[in-house]
Amino acid sequence: MPTELVATWFGAFEMDGDRVLRSFLAPPEVAALADRMRRRRLGEKVPEEEALLAATSESPHTTRDRRLTSERVTLHDPVAPPPGPASVGVNPTLRRQLFLEVAETALAEAWDPSIHVEEAVRSMTDLDSVRNLVGERLVSWSGRDMPPSEEGADDAGGAARSLEEGVAPDAARSPEEPELREARRQLARLYRSISATRDDLETAVASAMPRRAPNVSALLGPLLAARMISQAGGLARLARLPSSTVQMLGAEKAFFDHLRGHAPPPRHGLLFLHPTIQGAPRRQRGKLARALAGKVAIAARLDLAGAPIHPELQAAYEARRAEVRAAAPGPGKPGRRKGDRTERARAR
Question: 39 with 17, same domain?
Fold first, then answer.
């Protein structure tokens, strides 16, 4: 019966059943063991395994590890359990230290600094919701006795400004209790504070994005680039997405409605906010979004690798945009009937 070659975190062994014939132990340092575990995850052989393969005879062997297979080492189910660390003189407590070291290294490698951009964008979205709720309540309350602002009766910002500046309300309908008047003034201050904080977040994102993702920011603008990165789940994930998925970011609900047969396929998600797409005729938006998504996918990979700005991406998109505009039918040239039906269905 052929002997078995076994690789463990603490060494490599040639075994005959449960008996160890040869052993090549790894150094007992945690850093050396962590490096060997990293190399195994990459599919590489570590020095102990290479020494074992070199020392074994030309007779056939089996192994449970695909990395060790060759012409004379075949893959086979394990015959016996591998030796324990204590049975070969290795301290078993090294295993816990090793796994903690490997986990810490993996967390450090997986860290994506763009998480701060994601949190800022999500904070802006949350503040928009809170500001809208507070503004609705402020407009409703101030409309009981305050004259409408110059911007209109539904302008929360104008109502908040009037309350803070002390515009005189209708005395007959004003709250008699000074505590209620002060509480309403505090609500106006809260609304303006939320608006100021939201504007500060937007300014910070616009300032940070050209440094964090210069190529994506050059293509989309800093604010739209930040929203795309947040929607994708980070710059690293955006760099892994195909351009077709980048095109649909932000339109997930419409896409799944289409898969269920309830809606036509969406042509764009967040990319619709790009001025060249938003201002284009309806029948050109899908092609432009597809072209821009391809350039964004390339730009994200460049930014993840730390590359400088590649202006040829913007130039290539502008060239494609010119082609789409040139190929579009003019005012007196009707398009194909099938396309017209599709456009009307999407419009409905």
Answer: yes
